[in-house]
Design goal:
Elements: H1 3-36, E1 40-49, E2 54-66, E3 70-72, H2 78-84, H3 87-107, E4 114-118, H4 121-125, H5 129-140, E5 147-152, H6 153-157, H7 160-172, E6 176-182, H8 189-193, E7 199-202, H9 204-208, H10 214-229, E8 233-237, H11 242-250, E9 255-257, H12 267-275
Parallel strand pairs: 2-4, 4-5, 5-6, 6-7, 7-8, 8-9
Antiparallel strand pairs: 1-2, 1-9, 2-3
Helix pairs in contact: 3-5, 5-7
The structure holds ligand C2E and magnesium ion (MG) (3 copies).
Length: about 280
């Protein structure tokens, strides 16, 4: 028996866990305060109609201005926000901020564009998501047609019945419902046909290797045909090159979002580049 060795290695392991947990708790506490401290911010990435070279919408993407770590991307904190349930108040803040922004742009007389917001499964589980969203739209005075809510297939699967019911209610008052990262989940065709949705967003992984990879162009082609047959709008995300844009346009998929056009921008830069000017963006 080597009690000492296993004992000390256990202790070592235990200590390491404590340090990690301490870091997690610190991060979690900071996230709790982020909302109250005004450290959350929406960035806006344009969605372009490539056939007319005009802007038709924008996706609002969350950023965290951490006091010591600087700008933190959602990939580093959304999962934690979902686990802790913080995504509910944070998600509500995102919807409200997006609606306030729509209102401000309206008041400045800019041509209307649809603003897309990402939702997590947890937000549907709070039971009154529909009332929350409708309440915000009414209170701020924004038309539901100017809001699009994005959810991934995998998020829908987490609580299918309640989520689809709520999506139906949201869609019924005129909000656009969209499936994000489409093609990476597990929905069957029959399942998709019964979802209350207006649009699909082709996942960027299928766009990024277009041309150089036949499998991905086959998948992109299939999704484009699928959207057409189901009469759904289609957005290609992660468009980074002219070649990818031309490939999509040649298949009549014209709505695009990606670094080829622009990265997500701070609101002022987005506004001056895409709303205050009537110029061409390409
Ligand atoms: P998403 O909704 O699929 O958003 C698209 C992501 O792709 C964004 O990353 C965007 O910056 C990035 N992207 C856009 N164009 C390109 C491109 O051409 N190439 C590449 N490589 N990437 C591109 P971001 O902003 O880091 O957000 C990551 C994810 O975090 C989002 O993926 C979304 O799932 C989640 N997220 C962001 N904001 C929110 C939010 O307010 N609520 C919730 N629940 N999730 C959010
Ligand atoms: Mg999205
Ligand atoms: Mg996506
Ligand atoms: Mg995503």
């Amino acid at each position: 028996q080597s009690k000492t060795v296993s004992g000390s290695s256990y202790q070592f392991y235990h200590l390491a866990m404590d340090i990690r947990t301490f870091e997690n708790v610190k991060f979690e506490n900071a996230l709790y305060k982020a909302l109250d401290h005004g450290e959350l911010e929406l960035y806006f990435q344009p969605q372009i109609d490539y056939s007319t070279r005009s802007i038709i919408g924008t996706e609002a993407l969350l950023r965290w201005n951490h006091s010591t770590e600087g700008l933190i991307s959602p990939d580093r904190f959304i999962a934690l926000a979902e686990e802790t349930g913080l995504i509910v108040p944070i998600g509500e803040w995102v919807i409200r901020s997006a609606c306030n922004q729509i209102k401000k742009w309206q008041e400045k007389g800019y041509p209307p564009i649809v603003v897309s917001v990402n939702l997590s499964a947890r937000q549907f589980e709070q039971n009154n998501l529909f009332q929350t969203v409708k309440g915000i739209l009414d209170e701020v005075g924004v038309s539901p047609e100017l809001l699009c809510l994005e959810i991934t297939e995998n998020q829908i699967i987490k609580n299918t019945e309640l989520t689809i019911q709520t999506m139906k209610e949201l869609q019924a008052i005129g909000i656009n419902m969209s499936i994000d990262d489409f093609g990476t989940g597990y929905s069957s065709l029959g399942y998709l046909k019964n979802l209350p949705i207006n649009a699909l967003k082709i996942d960027k992984s299928f766009i990024q290797e277009l041309k150089s990879n036949d499998d991905n162009s086959a998948i992109a082609n299939t999704i484009i045909t699928l959207a057409k047959n189901l009469d759904l709008d289609l957005v290609a995300e992660g468009v980074e090159t002219l070649e990818q844009a031309e490939f999509l346009a040649s298949r009549e998929c014209y709505i695009m979002q990606g670094y080829y056009f622009n990265v997500p921008l701070k609101v002022n830069e987005f506004e001056s580049t895409y709303l205050a000017t009537k110029g061409e963006f390409l």
